[in-house]
Amino acid sequence: MSSFVLHLLRHGEPEGAGRLIGHTDATPLPPGIAACVAQARELDVTVLIASDLSRARRAGAAISAMRGIPLVIDPRWRELDFGQWDGLPPNAVDGAALSRFWDDPDGCAPPAGERWSDLVGRVARALADLAAAPTLVVTHAGAMRAALAVLCGFDSRQSWAIDLPYASLLSLRVWPGETRAAQIIGLRP
């Protein structure tokens, strides 16, 4: 069974960095877009996908223009929906509720927000639809962690333990099939 390389690129720094920016459509800052373009410059990819949120979509559009690869927009690569917490700084959220969420993101989802398993499920569907071709997805830290859960079998604690700063690039070798599997081949902050 042949494998393919999947690169997951976190969007660059947006306005409001440091907040719980899930489905809030935060505007990307120009240096953040430039950092994403720099990360993608030498990648050998034939497929380019981005989340529909502007902080990922605009970085994807800049990469598309630089590389001449068509950009496909896929909302399944969105960040976790933080519901009523979306757009708030962590210190504006009840500390005990936020701690419960970090300890158990599936059982203690943000009010009116998305459960961890829902994010993992939507990213799993996006992964299942990928062609076995060298691919770059411009996405969000939560979706990248969900991909690690799906492809590498990481639980939520393992997934959240990986530091994914803005414009970080996570590269995986993926073996397609009914049960996809992957190996991390690089992480470049």
Description:
The protein has 189 residues and is α/β, with parallel strands linked by helices. The chain is 34% helix and 18% strand. It has six helices and six strands. The chain has helices at 30-40, 54-67, 95-103, 116-128, 141-152, 156-160, and strands at residues 4-10, 47-50, 71-73, 135-139, 169-175, 181-188. A six-stranded mixed β-sheet has the order 3-2-4-1-5-6, with helices on both faces.
Number of helices: 6
Strand fraction band? 15-25%
Order of helices and strands: EHEHEHHEHHEE
Sequence of strands across the biggest β-sheet: 3-2-4-1-5-6
**Mean pLDDT over the full residue set:** 94
Number of strands: 6
Distance between the termini: 31 Å
Low-confidence stretches: none
Largest sheet: 6 strands, mixed
* Integer-rounded radius of gyration: 16 Å
Structural class of the secondary elements?
alpha/beta
Share in helix: 25-40%
What does the overall shape look like? globular
Question: What order do the helices and strands come in, and which of them pair?
Answer:
Layout: E1 4-10, H1 30-40, E2 47-50, H2 54-67, E3 71-73, H3 95-103, H4 116-128, E4 135-139, H5 141-152, H6 156-160, E5 169-175, E6 181-188
Parallel strand pairs: 1-4, 2-3, 2-4
Antiparallel strand pairs: 1-5, 5-6
Helix pairs in contact: 1-2, 4-5
Name a few traits of the molecule.
189 residues; 6 helices; alpha/beta; six-stranded mixed beta sheet; 6 strands; globular
Task: Give a short overview.
It contains 6 helices and 6 strands.
